[in-house]
Amino acid sequence: MSEAVLETKNMHMAFGGLVIFEAIDFSLRRGDRHAIIGPNGAGKTTFINLVTGLLKPRAGEIWFDGRNVTQDTPQQRVKAGLVRTFQINSLFKALNPLESVMLALLEREGRSKPSLRTVAQEKPLIDEAMALLDRFGLAGDAFSITDALAYGKQRLLEVVLALALKPKVLLLDEPAAGLSTQQGHEVFAKLADLPGETAILFIEHDMNLVFQYADIVSVFAAGSMVLQDTPENVRASPRVREVYLGA
Ligand SMILES: Nc1ncnc2c1ncn2[C@@H]1O[C@H](COP(=O)(O)OP(=O)(O)OP(=O)(O)O)[C@@H](O)[C@H]1O
Ligand SMILES: [Mg+2]
To answer: pTM for this structure?
Structure first.
């Protein structure tokens, strides 16, 4: 089996006449912590939208876990294990974190319309939900209304909800955005502790977080992937400094 869990092959994308990618050959290895960096408007979010199936590429292919998923719906990709964080919407805001995680677990188990069962029958799933919340420091908030939680905790809950689906690849678009420097480090430290089989592909503007937590970095700019290399080599690359780091 290929080492790559996610690949794009010669992927083209444009919005009308605005070319975003001329031809991206990207590869994410199993278990890697992989950062995407690049200037505003480089196409980083568009890349995630293509990979998850929210957008369709003009040409090229997307492969996930050994299969060509280019024509698959976003739901099919989630089922296969390609999961992004979803922003907590108004539904989740009205629930408490335990209820939200239970919904995600039931969805994963193919029980999105749960029949009435006793709490005792649901104990394994409740235990799993509480363990996930505990891992992200949210066990004490399990019964609080999500809307009333601090912003940083709501962002953590988004990660927990994605992880409840047992992803092979977790996609994160600026998980530390809007958080303090310390909270940002806390989120990434928790992600770094996750089991090694979950690959994480994250977009991040904070270079301290990128260089501390990524095994490998892809640099997007002006319609292409400029470089894919170790954090050390990316930091040392004159080309990257020119297009992005501005130093
Ligand atoms: N649905 C859309 N329709 C038209 N143009 C779009 C659409 N989505 C994005 N764009 C344009 O595509 C380009 C890439 O946008 P994208 O959001 O992917 O950049 P980004 O690298 O994520 O930037 P940032 O760092 O600011 O988040 C931008 O010029 C943006 O205006
Ligand atoms: Mg973006």
So the answer is: 0.92
